[in-house]
């Protein structure tokens, strides 16, 4: 691989590493939001938990958990390692 293409790969690898840091930051923010929503839901009386508002809160918690799980499974470092080895 010539120098110009190697520089492109190095730049792309750097961008992917920055993206990985941003995804980690976003995951932490989502985790905080999910925990706060769970606490708010748990503090509702049982009757309100079963109301439309409570059901929506429960759905929000489930959706956030699914997104967080996806972000935990997605590993950009697999790609940056491959680029760095070229």
Question: How would you characterize this protein structure?
Answer:
It is built from four helices and no strands. The chain is mostly helical and about 90 residues long. Helix 1 (about 5-45) packs antiparallel against helix 3 (about 50-75) and helix 1 (about 5-45) packs antiparallel against helix 4. The longest helix has about 40 residues, at about 5-45.
Provide the fold topology.
Blueprint: H1 3-43, H2 46-49, H3 52-73, H4 77-84
Helix pairs in contact: 1-3, 1-4
Shape: rod-shaped
- N to C succession of SSEs: HHHH
**Total beta strand runs:** 0
Alpha plus pi helix count: 4
SS-based structural class?
mainly alpha
Average pLDDT level:
92
Q: What is the radius of gyration?
A: 20 Å
Low-confidence stretches: none
Q: In what range is the share of β-strand residues?
A: under 5%
Helix percentage: over 70%
Question: How would you characterize the largest beta sheet?
Answer: none
- End-to-end separation in angstroms reads 8 Å
List keywords for this structure.
86 residues; mainly alpha; 87% helix
Brief summary:
The protein has about 90 residues and is an all-alpha fold. About 85% of the residues lie in helices and about 0% in strands. The longest helix is centred in the N-terminal third of the chain and has 41 residues, at about 5-45.
